[in-house]
Amino acid sequence: MLTNKFLKLQSCLFRLLGFELLAKSCSCSWQQPHRTFASLLAVLSFLPLTVCFGLRHIQNLNNLTDALCSLLIDVLAVFKLGLLICRHKDIMQLLHSLQQLLHEECRQGAAAAIIAQQNKREQFISGLYKNIFIVSAASACLMPLLRMLYIFYRYGQVEPALPFPSVYPWHNRHLLNYSVSYAWNVCAAAAVLLPTVCVDTLYCALTHNLCALFQIAQHKFKHATVADYNAQRGVGQLDLLTLYQRTLDLTGTLNACFRLLVTVQFLIASLHLCVLSYQMATNLLQPDVLFFFAFTCSILAQVYLYCYCGECVKDESMRITAAIYECSWLEMTCQLPGLSQTLQLSMLRAQRASCIRGYFLEANRITFVKVSATDRRTDRQTEGPSHILTHFCLQIVKTAMSYVTLLRSMS
């Protein structure tokens, strides 16, 4: 039986968006389209308000970057919703194929333990990721109210403030108008939050389960014996080669489904970090810096999630080579001479890593972390997530300071 941690968080989130991830058929996975289109409408209806705000304050770089920051996160959410709508059948087919393969493998104790461990770690990462975005959205929605209370307490005046930069055809000093505007902002924030967390945590779950399959293949290679071979083809074939090939096929399907998203995600994240760095620099002594800091953490978490998961898939696929070498190949090739060529070809294939690629980049740490030549020669097995994240954050800070200098010179 598959672990109860499998897509536990994602199932709840996608159900709110109108999808049933664990449906028996791909054709009935999109059960409530009205929820999906309601989220899409909430974001699309808010986009013109943000664009108008940016055009109205085009001479004010602070307000313009604020509007650009909000616009980018809305565009990315619309793109992820569009991806789900257009490719939900392909994604669900990939999910069902992965689930079927995991069901077949989890009958063995070692494989079941590997799957349970990977899903437990994935649920922890996805839950932490979800909480980061919830904190960012909550801080964005509560900050205007706290600012209004502070101004009222300090000066005795009510100055209406909204979570996100936007322009409305009515005056927000009236309580009813302000309530409508504030509710519109909150609905837009929820509509952005839900698809973003859904798609990103689904990507995290798929990659972690692919890593589990690669680890199961490694375990089977290390403990393979002559009895594990199928001699029906004459030269002897490992039954577990089928598992390895199916895992490679699933990785290719995942790459095809998320290739465009990986590219768009990284491009928009780069622009986000640019404008957020400027906003944090110009509002360093203001209460708004708390919101910009939380927002920056969410963007960093978003980029790092894609980076880390892609690196995990790459590393686990390449460890197949060492697993084949550690098996009792000498004894087996003596009894089955035709097996030698099969193992050599498998090792050659495993040396070509399975990567999650965009159109002109690869989702791994090297894409973002430009370390010295000494760091690049370091063995990947000695580098943990904290080592990768440290180099990544240092590079982000270095790049952000360059952006801040450029923007401040323009202002």
From TrEMBL:
One of its GO terms (molecular function) is odorant binding. Keywords: Cell membrane, Membrane, Olfaction, Receptor, Sensory transduction, Transducer, Transmembrane, Transmembrane helix. It is found in: Cell membrane. This is Odorant receptor. Its main location: membrane. The keyword Transport does not apply. The keyword Transmembrane applies. Belongs to the insect chemoreceptor superfamily. Heteromeric odorant receptor channel (TC 1.A.69) family. The chain crosses the membrane at residues 37-58, 64-86, 128-153, 182-206, 256-278, 290-309. GO terms for biological process: signal transduction. GO terms for cellular component: plasma membrane. It is a multi-pass membrane protein. InterPro entries: 7tm6_olfct_rcpt.
